[in-house]
Amino acid sequence: MVESQLRARNIRDPRLLEVMAECHAMNSWTRNFRARLMATIPFHFRGTDGFSALHGGADARSARLEPQNVVLEIGTGSGYQTALLAELAAQTYSVERHSHLAEIARATLARLGYQNVAVIVGDGSRGLEEFGPFDRIIVSAAAPQIPPALVDQLSEGGR
Fold first, then answer.
1. In total, how many domains does the chain have?
2. What CATH number does the domain containing 80 carry?
3. Is there a domain that residue 158 lies in?
4. Where in the sequence is the domain holding 110, given as residue range(s)?
5. Is 52 an annotated catalytic residue?
6. Would you state the torsion angle of the CA atoms of residues 142, 100, 133, 52, taken in this order, to the nearest 10 degrees?
7. In this predicted structure, what is the pLDDT of residue 120?
8. Facing residues of 74 across strands?
9. Which of 52, 78, 94, 140 is catalytic?
10. What is the pLDDT of residue 70?
11. How far is 51 from 75, CA to CA, in rounded Å?
């Protein structure tokens, strides 16, 4: 996966490549689901918006995560990107609007032993003011404009 999918898409951050290559979350899903995660285009799961691991890797790369960062992720999806963020940052808060996806992601992340993650069902455009400010905010959803609440919850110097 690292050579054929990630390096080919100019993802070069050694920390991110290592985490994606070894991410425990990849071992928790069926072979078919893993193959779909590695697809170059997002796929849909139970009537939700599309997602893929490759897009998650690109998002994590562009965030330039540091080990001490507190991250807000909008759009938990399968929880794969959430697991990447948990490996790369001190604390990750993830908001998912689909309760069934949030439940699946919570169960997977708990089973894999991630303790620095909280998955919350809600409207991501509102952020999570009670847990901010955030060093990084990653939005894995489309919006006509950046929600003001997210800008307000970004720490000084955040991305």
1. 1
2. 3.40.50.150
3. no
4. 2-152
5. yes
6. -50
7. 98
8. 95, 139
9. 52
10. 98
11. 9
**Of 123, 115, 159, 129, the residue nearest 143 (C-alpha):** 123
CA atoms within 13 Å, Cβ hemisphere of 12: 1
Contact yes or no for 153/132 (Cβ under 8 A): yes
**What is the per-residue pLDDT for 141?**
76
Q: Could you tell me the mean pLDDT of each successive run of 10 residues in the chain, 159 residues long?
A: 57 66 55 53 48 49 81 90 90 96 92 94 96 94 88 95
Report the Cα 39 to chain-centroid distance in Å. Answer: 16
Residue 28 maps to a domain: yes
In a domain, 126, yes or no: yes
> For residues 50 and 65, what is the distance between their CA atoms, to the nearest angstrom?
24
Token pair recorded at residue 76: 């938990």
d(CA 131, CA 122): 14
Residue 114, both tokens: 């991630």
Domain membership flag for residue 142: yes
Residue 115 pLDDT: 95
